[in-house]
Design brief:
The complex is a heterodimer of chains A (about 240) and B (about 140). Chain A has about 240 residues and is of the alpha+beta class. Chain A contains seven helices and nine strands; from the N terminus they run E-E-E-H-E-E-H-H-E-H-H-H-E-E-H-E. In chain A, strands 1, 2, 3, 4 and 5 form a five-stranded antiparallel sheet that branches. In chain A, strands 7-8-6-9 form a four-stranded antiparallel sheet. In chain A, a hairpin with an 8-residue loop joins strand 7 and strand 8. Chain A is elongated. Chain A starts with a strand and ends in a 7-residue tail after the last strand. In chain A, about 45% of the residues are buried. Chain B has one domain. In chain B, about 25% of the residues are buried. With about 140 residues, chain B is mainly α. In chain B, about 40% of the residues lie in helices and about 0% in strands. Classes of the chains: A alpha+beta (about 240), B mainly alpha (about 140).
Chain lengths: ~240, ~140
């Protein structure tokens, strides 16, 4: 029977969340499959598994529960093994590698930071920084908004200025936070934020990290920052 | 929108509060094992689209030009103190917030398009309704479903 795999941890892990509800409806029970010094957190794989909210949440919850008690290597959502024997053979084949990663991630958590601009505030800034843009904007306004061509001309320059600032602010965010972390991983590019960055943070230093985020907000009020964490170290397992 | 870590038990059950915001990590990061089959991710391309990115296009140019016209340089909450000589000429536009309206409107259009293109049950619908204006409480509610 095929087996859904949530993550990998040490067999000495003190809080393996067995019996917790996993993916599927009704939720399939989480159990441990052991091989040597490693354990995989698995459950039966429902046949029609799709990336639905309920199942994504179950995946995340199992990893969060297990991660609260000790280092866990999270699997990407949706990994299904044909059977338990295949899980065991993967664990034994890569035992050294996984043990090394578990040691590296001990007492570490991931924080994901997403930054975007407050549009109005950033427009204020780009106009304040560039007298030419300001004059152009003022001329359009005095002309009742301006012609289509004038609007395009102004808009093109504003967009260029905003994009420049996006790139600059992405650096600002990363530089302000990388000192407070032990690892940095750019998030998947698809999501369209001016910065989407994951930081690996010592669990004990999490407050220092969050304080640094607050300082960025104070210093750069045109930035909207979203902090998500502590998370299982999805971005730092490889 | 921020998640304060003190409210989360070291990655414990509090991890649910931010699922929506870290979906791309759950789907794009983490260990992948070649010997395993991966569940099809058809139906969640919504992750690739987000109105927050500023794209160079005629529509964006026009939108930003309009937003500038409406910008009230005097009353802005983060007014730049270096602009005193402009203030007298730019106090007439009382349309603060309209640019935000335009943004969430765009998000709505995209999510409508996805809903009608997919329409495969409630769960997909909630996943595609990503927009800037969503309240935390409604998001929580959806996640508990």
């Amino acid at each position: 029977m095929s087996v859904y795999v949530y993550g990998i941890t040490r067999s000495s892990h003190p809080g393996i969340p067995e019996k917790l509800g996993g993916v599927g409806d009704p939720p399939r029970e989480v159990r441990a499959v052991a091989s040597g010094k490693l354990v995989a957190l698995v459950s039966e794989a429902p046949e029609d598994l799709k990336p639905k909210r309920r199942d994504l949440l179950a995946h995340q919850t199992v990893l969060s529960e297990a991660g609260a008690a000790g280092a866990v290597l999270p699997m990407r959502f949706g990994g299904v093994s044909p059977d338990e024997a295949a899980v065991v053979s993967v664990l034994s084949e890569r035992e050294d590698h996984y043990l090394e990663r578990l040691e590296a991630l001990d007492e570490k958590v991931e924080y994901n930071i997403k930054a975007s601009h407050d549009e109005e505030a950033v427009l204020h800034q780009v106009l304040a920084d560039d007298p030419e843009l300001r004059a152009l904007s003022e001329a359009n306004r005095n002309a009742g908004g301006g012609t289509y061509e004038q609007k395009l001309a102004l808009g093109e320059r504003i967009v260029a200025a905003v994009k420049q600032r996006e790139a600059r602010d992405a650096v600002v965010v990363q530089e302000a936070l990388q000192d407070k972390s032990v690892g940095v991983s750019p998030g998947p590019e698809s999501s369209g934020w001016l910065a989407n960055i994951s930081f690996l943070v010592d669990r004990g230093a999490a407050h220092t990290f969050v304080d640094a985020v607050e300082r960025i907000k104070e210093l750069h009020p045109h930035l909207v920052l979203q902090v998500n964490g502590p998370l299982p170290p999805y971005s730092f397992v490889e | 929108m921020s998640v304060v870590p003190a409210q989360q038990g070291g990655g414990g059950s509090g991890g649910t509060s931010g699922l929506y915001d870290v979906l791309e990590l759950v789907l794009d990061r983490g260990i992948v094992i070649d010997a395993f089959v991966r569940v099809s991710l058809v139906g969640i391309e919504i992750l690739k689209i987000d109105v927050r990115v500023v794209v160079a296009s005629v529509d964006t140019y026009l939108r930003f030009a309009e937003a500038c016209n409406r910008l009230d340089l005097e009353a802005g909450p983060r007014k730049n103190p270096g602009l005193p000589d402009l203030v007298g000429e730019m106090t007439e536009s009382g349309a603060r917030g309209k640019s935000k309206g335009a943004l969430s409107g765009a998000a709505q259009t995209i999510s409508d398009a996805f809903n009608s293109a997919r329409g495969d049950g409630d769960e997909e619908k909630t996943e595609s309704s990503r927009s800037r204006g969503r309240s935390t409480s409604s998001r929580r509610k959806e996640e508990q479903e």
